[in-house]
């Protein structure tokens, strides 16, 4: 048994086809694991299986306890999920949406306590959403909505944060702001992060472990420098790329021709 998250022999079949086969990974408390891989590799499916909303074989454990054994409410206190394409409710303000993250911590039908409201305000401020708090969520820009979805997940104050492509709608500055915040939370609060990231340079800078999925299987796993190699990018992405050493890890530079 290991502390933190342990995924063993995970398999998912959708329709007749296997989408994930025998996937295993471990993520210690406070670590950041980025799941990378080409389109259709199974990254989002893996996050949803860990979350427990996708029927799967194999086991997902936290501190040695199978998550299947937990109630929904206990799972929601442990794991928060920011999906790639969230369905956003209509006619709800940003503040009320972020406050939904406190639901697993409140008694059924109880009004929010001052402590819940404080968490919501603090989380919005950290993501520069405070000036948008009274706006209707669906009127925010794509990047602002993406920050609101992350704020809702963080307001849950989970131990494990599952992030599906958290930076796709964000400009570079906001992408760094979000990733820096997640990085700070894992260092200060021991938040365990499992994210998908298409931007391999950001993955190389922020994650301490990478899991490379291809065709639903783990084909490489290790530190960013071990996984992000020109050969792996050619084999699994069909990409021409150079890997350069950045100050905080490897960065991937597309190369125009051989
Ligand atoms: N409901 C479904 N029924 C059948 N196949 C599905 C279903 N949902 C996903 N798939 C397939 O499972 C595979 C993995 O999908 P998934 O979304 O996990 O990939 P991904 O690695 O996150 O891709 P992307 O990088 O494009 O977001 C894909 O081939 C996808 O078409």
TrEMBL record:
Coiled-coil region: none
Transmembrane segments annotated in the record for this chain: none
Domain ABC transporter: start-end pairs: 5-240
PROSITE patterns named among the record's database cross-references: ABC_TRANSPORTER_1, ABC_TRANSPORTER_2
Keyword Glycoprotein part of the UniProt annotation: no
Listed GO MF terms: ATP binding
InterPro entries from the UniProt entry: AAA+_ATPase, ABC_transporter-like_ATP-bd, ABC_transporter-like_CS, P-loop_NTPase
Key words, A-Z: ATP-binding, Nucleotide-binding, Translocase, Transport
One Pfam family here: ABC_tran
Matching SMART domains: AAA
Superkingdom per UniProt: Bacteria
Listed name of the protein: ABC transporter ATP-binding protein
Lineage: Bacteria, Bacillati, Actinomycetota, Actinomycetes, Geodermatophilales
């Amino acid at each position: 048994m290991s502390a933190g998250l342990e995924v063993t022999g995970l398999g998912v079949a959708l329709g007749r086809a296997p989408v994930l086969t025998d996937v295993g990974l471990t993520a210690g408390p406070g670590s950041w694991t980025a799941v990378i891989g080409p389109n259709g590799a199974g990254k989002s499916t893996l996050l949803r299986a860990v979350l427990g909303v996708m029927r799967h074989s194999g086991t997902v454990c936290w501190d040695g306890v199978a998550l299947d054994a937990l109630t929904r409410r206990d799972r929601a206190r442990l794991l928060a999920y920011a999906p790639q394409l969230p369905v956003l409710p209509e006619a709800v303000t940003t503040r009320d949406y972020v406050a939904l993250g406190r639901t697993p911590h409140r008694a059924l039908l109880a009004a929010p306590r001052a402590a819940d409201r404080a968490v919501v305000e603090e989380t919005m401020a950290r993501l520069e959403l405070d000036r948008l708090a009274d706006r209707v969520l669906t009127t925010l820009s794509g990047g602002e909505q993406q920050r609101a979805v992350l704020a809702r997940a963080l307001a849950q104050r989970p131990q494990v944060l599952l992030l599906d492509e958290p930076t796709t709608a964000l400009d570079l500055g906001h992408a760094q702001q979000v990733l820096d915040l997640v990085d700070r939370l894992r260092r200060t609060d021991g938040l365990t992060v499992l994210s998908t990231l298409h931007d391999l340079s950001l993955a190389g800078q922020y994650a301490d472990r990478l899991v490379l999925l291809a065709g639903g299987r783990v084909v490489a796993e290790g530190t960013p420098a071990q996984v992000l190699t020109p050969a792996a990018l050619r084999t699994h992405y069909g990409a021409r790329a150079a890997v350069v050493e950045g100050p905080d890890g490897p960065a991937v530079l597309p190369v125009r021709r051989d």
